[in-house]
Amino acid sequence: MIAGGSAGSGSTSWRGRPPWGGRPSWPRRLGGLVLVVVPIVYLSYLFLYPLVSILWLSLTGTGRLDLSPFWQIVVRPSLRGIIWFSLWQAVVSTVLTLVLGLPAAYVFARYDFPGKSLARPMVTIPFVLPAVVVGSAFMALLGPTGPLGVDLRRTVWAILLAHAFYNYAVVVRTVGGLWAHLDPRLEEAARMLGAGRVRTFREVTLPLLRPAIAAAASIVFLFTFTSFGVILILGGLHYATIEVEIYRQTTSFLNLGLAAALAVVQMVGVTAILVLYSQYQERRSMELSLRPVRETSRRPRTRGEKTLVAGVLGFTAVFLGAPLVLLVERSFHTATGYGLTYYRALGSTRTGSLFVPPVEAIRNSLVFAVVATIIAVIVGMMAAAVIAYRSDWTARGLDVVLMLPLGTSAVTIGLGFIVALDWPWDLRTSALLIPLAHSLVAIPFVVRTSLPVLRSVRGRLREAAAVLGAPPSRVWREIDLPLVARSVLVGAGFAFAISLGEFGATSFIARPDTPTVPVAIFRLLGRPGALNLGQAMALSTILMALTAVAIGLIERFRLGEGGEF
Amino acid sequence: MKHDVLSNRRSDGRAAKRRPTPVVAAVLVLIATALVAVPASLAGCGSTTTTTAGGAATIAPAGAPTTTVTLGGEVVLMTHDSFAVSEGVLEEFTAQTGVKVRVLKSGDAGAMLNQAVLTKDHPLADVLYGVDNTFLSRALDAGIFEPYEPPGLASVPPEFQLDPSHRAAPIDYGDICVNYDKAAFTGLTKPPATLRDLTEPEYRSRLVVENPATSSPGLAFVLATIAEFGETGDYTWRDYWADLVKNDVLVVGGWEDAYYSAFSGGSGKGDRPLVVSYATSPVAEVVYAETPVTVAPTGIVAEGAFRQVEFAGVLAGAKNPEAARRFVDFLLSTRFQEDMPLQMFVYPANSEAAVPTEFATYAAVPERAAALDPAVIGANRDRWIEEWTSIVLP
């Protein structure tokens, strides 16, 4: 069952005191304390402390607290326009992503078709590609000679389509994950009682799916509200989000005060969404009878079903596949026909510069991704346990704060690391800072995937174990852990992919010369020359392959869990 | 029944065994300790080396002849992401001085400068390299540099020495100008010869430029137009840009997008034959061609270029100031200066450094490149960018 904080069998839910009664012994209390303290300390030190430091420093640059940048936001129409644009494009992008993604979520959840296990990891690939790479493919496809036949380059449509392209996987996996576990008999019963298809969907399926749709929508909104690369590259210049404006104010105008004020406005917006979402998740406590996937999906039978499945899969293949195929094609398409020139060039340091051999970039990326994933899994599971087992303000606060890094300005947090993390150890220029920064973005994914499962075992099973005398650590080890292990792996896969592709905060910190694959792609694209462009495409193809393999391996463990991602 | 039917049975079966209880707590404590201890040890390594470096550096008196003293330790170089150097060059510095070089990449030039300004009380590095003349006054006003006059300045033309108090030493320069796709101008239409030509009807919908608010070549090109047309008179730079807009100029966010997605020449995949880029881009097109070529596929409009000069300086509060000064000397040495052109596609500031043959063959040096006083740029850049935005992106 996917239920919120105080769901379960009412009277016995644990509110700070375990149902097995009595005063817990000190190891139990210590265990509970560590669970709470570690995620809080980790987030406070690596996220809140740098964030508050940079905001404070920026707003007190003149020697005293200066709040006039906030007034500027109120009076300058251009800044108000930017806030309005950030908001409406995020709402429209979210709706568009849901509209495009829900049919695919349904098909992936309810039908079996050949190649399904191959197709699913593919959906996640866009997630890791740098915007500058996707941008070049979109530019070619949305041009007047592209398949659409209209010139959508540098229009708001390009932004909306790119956002849907990037976040398709969030909807398919989050909503599809729950849909695959819904008992089809509920819908069959409604149909039998005379409800039409539309009414069945509206009155039976949709209410049941609402929690997952809300989860997906909140993530897509966070990503698109703070969108940066897509806006800068695909939107041309008539469009700017708050994040783009923070970047402009910081790096071109060196106006840190205004940048900080904008960052605060952005965070207020993000926090509002997160609080709404968190409250919503707590209120929805519906008794669902979840079914194993194998009972709910089947091969399409009728002609209509076959058409539906083929149509949806065809759309997905074109929508996600076309830009990706174009990039792969470009990596092989050399001046002298198709060949491996660019891949071979990757292996040799032609000009003997600090240009890292890609093997090294891949190794760096993998090492960072492994470290980030391990940290994200450890801290994320602790946090998930706290959020699932407690329903006090600590749990609610942690739930919101954990998600904040997803919606915080990368420029701001990057500069925050630089000003804050010289105490107690000077982490500012350590290579370790890169996976630490990645882990901040990855932790929410681990939490979101394991939380529903942890919550689903909160009820009778755990109570039964407790009544039979099992101490909490043992309940956790023997009941929760086996159940949650697989969905944690799913979260770990997302964490891994995020670290592989992340190019946010880490590009704004002073980092030692340990380039990752996205950094190497950027460096190649920083110079003219066909060989540089070709190598960038080749590296992007390698990045896609790495992601597909990583997610594919994770998918093998994804059997019958109802994670939110 | 709301539980996952799949796993119920398994956990029931396991519940029969007995295990010691505090294990989980102990493991969690261990993990927490590890989380705290690992950063400590890693950060510890870094700072110990630098402390030794600082200690060693004080032995050498500041004005000592630089070739005889071996310093040891480490010098940290903060630079932008475009920094590149051939293998073995920095190692030569280490061989000469015993000082190891650690390179910190810090984003684009603007991001780097922000980091240097924000950390000025506890600098991240000893030397900063890559601040250009459009940002120089900001860096100087913020007081991030400590004055140092490297002996190598004697061979640097005075026009590059823009800071009379020697806080920042010129290291390299390059010109920003319009590049054209040779293939698009084979017929009757000739490539434009001046900035003014770009407003003519035959170049309608041909030019792509970068936004000065997000791109440093974009800003340099706006500065070129300001230097060319001026702020006052019958036809100001604002009138010029209004005419460019009428002539359907395309504005994009960054150089990569302009060059690779909008420009049609060389490795570009777009449909516009004129782009704002570097005067050395045709050289890069030859050097990084897939198959050896003898003619560059692109050319430059030699009129109306803007000269960008990049500076390096010793950061105030550097841990290893003597090594930092020696490293600035090294940046101006012919060894580094002669390596730079093919690595970063810029020209050496040191006039004694030889320029590679590729540059002589494929690069044209713009006839007259505009230069504005960094203090004037510093005082006006925000206003100029705002004005540009209101004209071009209303």
Describe what this molecule looks like in 3D.
- Chain A has 565 residues and is mainly α.
- Chain A has a single domain, classed as Orthogonal Bundle (MetI-like fold).
- Helices cover 70% and strands 1% of the residues of chain A.
- Chain A has 22 helices and 3 strands.
- Chain A has helices spanning 26-59, 68-75, 77-110, 116-123, 131-141, 156-179, 184-192, 197-225, 229-234, 242-251, 256-283, 293-296, 303-332, 341-347, 358-389, 393-403, 410-420, 433-456, 460-467, 472-501, 517-525, 530-555, and strands at 333-334, 337-338, 511-512.
- The longest helix of chain A is centred in the N-terminal third of the chain and has 34 residues, at 26-59.
- Chain B has 394 residues and is α/β, with parallel strands linked by helices.
- Chain B folds into 2 domains: 54-173 and 308-348, D-Maltodextrin-Binding Protein, domain 2; 174-307 and 363-392, Periplasmic binding protein-like II (D-Maltodextrin-Binding Protein, domain 2, 3-Layer(aba) Sandwich).
- Chain B is 40% helix and 16% strand.
- Chain B has helices spanning 5-14, 23-57, 89-97, 109-118, 136-142, 216-229, 237-246, 255-262, 281-287, 321-332, 334-344, 357-362, 374-392, and strands at residues 74-79, 100-105, 127-132, 145-146, 169-181, 207-210, 250-252, 274-278, 298-300, 305-315, 347-348, 369-370.
- In chain B, strand 1, helix 3 and strand 2 (100-105) form a beta-alpha-beta unit.
- In chain B, helix 6 (216-229) crosses helix 7 and helix 7 (237-246) packs parallel to helix 13.
- Residues 1-67 of chain B have low confidence and may be disordered.
- At the A-B interface, helix 1, helix 5, helix 10, helix 15 and helix 17 of A face helix 1, helix 2, strand 2, helix 4 and strand 7 of B.
- Strand 3 (511-512) of chain A pairs antiparallel with strand 2 (100-105) of chain B.
